[in-house]
Amino acid sequence: MRILYLPNSSSQQRQFQKPSHIYPVLMAMEAQHYRKMGQEVFWGLQKCGNFSGWVDKVITEPERLFPFASLPHPDRIWTRAKEYTSGNYKYLPGTHMQSARGCWWGKCTFCVENEKPYEVRPVEDVISEIEECKALGFKEVFDDSATFPIGGWLDKFLDRAIVKGFRSSIRLGCNMRICNIDYKRFVLAGFRMLLFGIESANQFTLDHINKGVKVENIIPTIKRASKCGLDCHGAFMFGYSWETDEDAQRTLKLCHYLLRKGYLKTAQASLYCPQGVPGNQAHKKYIKKIYNAGYYPEFWFHQLRAIKDINDIKYIWRGMKSAFQ
């Protein structure tokens, strides 16, 4: 069988309203699976014209092949991983990986992982892939599992990462829920950044989208992770059909507060878009307003005091350019 993979800006996304050309690691893992089976697999536009004349199958999004834990590591040379420069990396080149498919919470109504099976790779397999990324010259790896595994798996992973000395050789990042865990151990294991899905400052909204988070836990959790030395990134959403302008402004104020205090180093916002249907367009205006945090001297005080080397300066510059795009 001749299979053509055509990654696009949505191939690795879980929120349909937020296209981004990040490394489609899950597709790359599945493509490598077919290659190991002996299939003839192409990655990207390697031929022109009518695909139907020379391929049997065109793939633009993950097929969710099972079992996930048995999928091979992606071939980052064959898939030209270093060409994918989008992503919240401070150290370049960076790449994405995925330790789990699905989410251990798995109940958020806006996410494509809602009620999907949850599968986790063995810790040693994940550690091995990080070491492969180091050998290929990647300086930072972001784990794009919907939510990084916790519990016993996390304890074992952090122990192994600390023993491997990742903190001095490669930086890590991952998606994380608001929860009570030991963030200091993340730092010791080599983590630089945690991406928290905050979504809203309104408890009714968090309950309505089944987030399973209490508003009163958001600030203390982000503050604690930040104080441990992690760069926290916050993801917010606007455009919920049931929210008023006052509700949306409350979320905006929370975002600005966390950025001004330096508890969040960076943030993003998107339009609520369940099952691909755009939400309240009138609240789309708040998405760009998160960057108004840059008008506060307090925000820049915390940004500048965190500068340690040229990578920090480049990171801030890339963030500024992204804010004005």
Give an account of the 3D structure:
The protein is of the alpha/beta class and 325 residues long. The protein folds into two domains: 1-82, no CATH class; 87-323, Aldolase class I (TIM Barrel). Helices cover 32% and strands 16% of the residues. It contains ten helices and eleven strands. It has a six-stranded parallel beta sheet with strand order 4-7-8-9-10-11. Strand 10, helix 7 (245-260) and strand 11 (266-271) form a beta-alpha-beta unit. Helix 2 (123-135) packs parallel to helix 3. The radius of gyration is 20 Å and the shape is globular.
Could you provide a short overview of the structure?
The chain is of the alpha/beta class. It has ten helices and eleven strands. Helix 2 (123-135) packs parallel to helix 3.
Give a short account of the largest sheet: 6 strands, parallel
Question: What are the secondary-structure elements, in order, as H or E?
Answer: EHEEEEEHEHEHEHHEHEHHH
Low-pLDDT regions = none
- Return the structural class: alpha/beta
Q: Provide the CATH superfamily of the largest domain.
A: Aldolase class I
Q: Secondary-structure map with pairings?
A:
Layout: E1 2-5, H1 25-36, E2 40-43, E3 57-59, E4 94-97, E5 100-101, E6 119-120, H2 123-135, E7 140-143, H3 151-164, E8 171-176, H4 183-188, E9 191-199, H5 203-208, H6 218-227, E10 231-238, H7 245-260, E11 266-271, H8 285-289, H9 297-305, H10 310-323
Parallel strand pairs: 1-2, 1-3, 4-7, 7-8, 8-9, 9-10, 10-11
Antiparallel strand pairs: 5-6
